[in-house]
Amino acid sequence: MVIFMGLLVDLFPGTDPPRKRDMAMEEVVVKMAKESGLTPDDDFVLRVMQMSELMAIRHCIFLMGPTGVSRTEVYRILAKTIMHGVDGQI
């Protein structure tokens, strides 16, 4: 489903198909972030969910970006979420 939505955006620029959301996993992401002393704003939760979606369709991913954009915390919180028992997309 994730790949299909990406193809829709590529084929029809300007479209914004709704993203399938796993609210139970998002709740656990927020809980794990708070337990780690982080403030889980919507952008952070979205990045964790996007990483989970990427890992479901890719064998290898790279987290790129400038210093201070939460790359390390994103994968740490995703790992804690999975260890907590919510597998989500993976």
State the main characteristics.
globular, single chain, 59% helix, 90 residues, mainly alpha, 4 helices
Number of strands: 0
Estimate the mean pLDDT confidence. 85
Low-confidence stretches: none
Task: Supply the helix-strand structural class.
Answer: mainly alpha
Biggest sheet layout: none
Rg of Cα set: 14 Å
Percent of residues in beta strands: under 5%
Number of contiguous helices: 4
The amount of helix comes to 55-70%
Distance between the termini: 13 Å
Shape: globular
Query: What's the order of the H and E elements?
Result: HHHH
Blueprint of the fold:
Layout: H1 2-11, H2 23-35, H3 42-57, H4 71-84
Helix pairs in contact: 2-4, 3-4
Can you describe what's shown?
- The chain has 90 residues and is mainly α.
- The protein has helices at residues 2-11, 23-35, 42-57, 71-84.
- Helix 2 (23-35) packs across helix 4 (71-84).
- The radius of gyration is 14 Å and the shape is globular.
- It starts with a helix and ends in a 6-residue tail after the last helix.
